[in-house]
Amino acid sequence: LAQKYDPQKEAELRTWIESVTGKQIGPDFQKGLKDGVILCELMNKLQPNSVRKINRSAQNWHQLENLSNFIKAMASYGMNPVDLFEANDLFESGNLTQVQVSLLALAGMAKTKGLQSGVDIGVKYSEKQQRNFDEAKMKAGQCVIGLQMGTNKCASQSGMTAYGTRRHLYDPKNQILPPMDHSTISLQMGTNKCASQVGMTAPGTRRHIYDAKMGTEKCDNSSMSLQMGSNQGANQSGQVFGLGRQIYDPKYCPQGTQGEVANAAGDQSGDPPGYHYYCEEE
Predict the structure, then answer these.
(1) Residue 198 maps to a domain
(2) Which of 56, 102, 178, 202 could form an SS bridge with 85, CB 3.0 to 4.6 Å?
(3) Where does the record place the Calponin-homology (CH) domain (predicted)?
(4) Nearest Cα to 36, choosing from 20, 58, 15, 18?
(5) Model confidence pLDDT, tens digit, residues 38-84
(6) Percentage of the chain exceeding pLDDT 90
(7) CA–CA separation, 146 vs 87, rounded Å?
(8) Cβ–Cβ under 8 Å, residues 11 and 29
(9) What is the CATH number of the domain that holds 59?
(10) Angstrom distance (rounded) from CA 187 to CA 169
């Protein structure tokens, strides 16, 4: 904070205070303003009777009271609270930078209120410029979108086809005729390499699988080539869904007709020949 203190601004403030009050501060700027007498007289010049009592005693609490009255007078003069300093900042040299900032803001407020002095110091405060618009003007402004909300660089959807409208693909490199209407889309928007769904069967339609290498003929447009995959000729012929199925093993099930099976079974059990089945001659 001490490094931010500006000696040039101190000289300007010294000249301005002395020209307004007609009092000499002395060689030491801090000691000359420490008692608060000159500051209270300065405030009475800017705003008469703003400090009604000025203590000229050398006692510390009287000097602190003068500084407190001066700070209150600055607040009533219209100074911003952030521009004010505390009494100890000047009395104990705690923060002379803040004291300098406050006095510069006071000079600017005095200039804003029209004080004429021989020293041009301080910056004028911005004045509030309130405008009153009628109700029709306020409603018209609600339809305006400012650039703070973004911009589309004057782009629009002029000439765009409705959603779902047929679009024609063309490529100028392949000597395809230029578009005849706005429903044409160029390759800059992408292409499917002239592929289409022409000849495709409806979802769920039966399809026949054939292999051109095996000499299988293509039956109709519902056939499907091996490029689409194959089940190696397997089908569901003879399959029953939900019915009982008998499981057998060829090792344990004899081969032949029913009579041969019965004769073989009789030879092993020792039954009489009368019970044998005879095979029908060829």
Answers:
(1) no
(2) 102
(3) 7-111
(4) 58
(5) 999 999 999 998 898 898 888 889 999 999 999 999 999 988 888 89
(6) 15
(7) 48
(8) no
(9) 1.10.418.10
(10) 7
